[in-house]
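Model the whole thing, not chain by chain.
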Amino acid sequence: MLPLGMKILIIEDEKDLAMSISQFLSEHDFLCEWVSTRESALDKIGIYEYDCILLDLMLPDGNGFDILKAIRSQNKLEGVIIISAKDTLETRIEGLQMGADDFLIKPFHISELMVRIQALIRRRKFSGSNRLVFNEIEVDYFEKLIFVHQKPVDFTKKETDLLFYLISNKNRVLSKNAIAEHLSGDMADMLDNHDFVYAHIKNLKKKLMQAGAGDYIKSVYGLGYKWEYES
Amino acid sequence: MKAKLLHKTLRFYLYYAVILFVIASPVFYFVIQQLYQREADDTLQLHRNEFVINILPNFSQNDVVNWNKFNRNIQLTPINTFQKDSFFTTNYYDSLEAELEPYRVLNSTIVLDGKFYQFSSKFNLVENEDIIRNIFLLFLGILLLLVLGILFITKIFSVSLWQPFYRALDQIEAFEIDKSFTYTEIQSSVAEFDRLNNSVKKLIEKNLLIYQNQKEFIENAAHELQTPLAVFKAKVDALMQYPDLKEEHYAIINSINDNVSKLFRINKNLLLLSKIENNSYQQSESISLIGALSKNIEFFKEQAAAKQIQIETSYASDITLNANTVLLDILISNLFLNAIKYNLQNGFIRISIANNILFFDNDGMDKALRKELLFKRFSMQNVGENSSGLGLSIIKKITDLYQWTIDYQYKDGYHQFKVRF
């Protein structure tokens, strides 16, 4: 798992959303700071170092791209995830060209944000070599490899993805909608296909069991699933 | 087919001309004849008066025989009683022409040496009939020329006179509210056409403005909804995490989740429609249709598998399209979504390309969908909780943009959507 106390800066003018994200990340042992304006964001960035910055593009006193420019011009290592309500190809391309690491369109599931943050920090801080370890299970997300009791197990790309997502959000109830959206990207949330989620979860559970891993995936009253682990 | 305005005008002129001919010709003929007859009668009367005044005082009974002998047109015959003057028309044999010819005759009684004589004077009408005929023909000729002239002038003049009207009409026909349109003003010296020009211009500009406002409203509304939706999602997500929730709470949250997803979908599609309308996807490149289908098919096969739906493809030939990649992907995805969403458990989907047409056949309910409502926004006529009611509108919008056509039919138990490129 990630070391505790990773620092996140949330730049978002919508208080409710910022608080929800902040609360959620704090529960997962992240240290969060929140600013709602461009100016205060630039101040913070000038003084402190963060592991990841969540950046809203539309701020009351300016454009989020300015902040992105400032971060990159200071040669900082922070990973930046843009969270924007504006979904155009140009914005995406511009954001990524200016050095954003990821792009998340509002409204998103908070569990989706979680998995993106984890992947990002892993990639930037540990050059992608760090494996996600959970008891007997190890996930190398970037190599798309899964080991159970140090032995490689054959999972499909979707199943690997799903496992990483579940473990990243451990002890959280994940709705089927959120899982479907995570698995199928841009288009699939149009289908709302719960059977599809069910089929993948079932296969994942079966393969983990066959490999001798514990049964961590719990179904939550038709609402969704949860990777349950009591330490 | 309805008559054109000009033809209609001309037709009425023509009706009038024919009626005028039919009625005026006999009347004209009759009147001319009457006039001429009166003229003949006056002449005969004059002859008689001349005879009575100039000849009768020096005339005796003995002269009657000689008079009658040398005068063909005035004959004197003894009669017993006084008779009133009478005019009549009758035929006499003309030995010169060797035929019967019409004459106007005046019978009048004169007194010669105390005896009554019938003074009978006649007037040949033949020459005059000729004149009448000639006058009549002349009249007809002039009338005909007049009518033809009017028709001709109307035709020539109307075409140029109505020109502004037709130009306005062409523009109204070409006007489409969702396409950019500039109204070209019509120059005209006619007050009514000026009015038409101004009204049409105003109407079009106003409509465009309203449409533009509405478009912006939808776009802004959809945009503004994104952030509250994000908050909403986050809050529901937080709510879900409470450890002491009961089963019935989960049921409520589940329903909230489904609905917020639906709301999100609708919003996303509205934004997409706005973006297509605003020409946000202008870049186009040449794309292979099979390539685009293959790119998407794996994902949808997986989705379809959850419903045990079989997807079969048969491509007779590839089509190379010049289009925006994103839009083509959206088009194909929506066709897939549609085919999966309204399919039956264990259903079937067949995708084929033939003759420049892409076909999507799928199982579904045993009833044709109502075509006229199919591509309208939010006209959900199908079962489907997940439907945003916008998928087919998006398909339609994209096909319209590239001047492709989308068509639907229900055939042999299959719902078939076809896109003609």
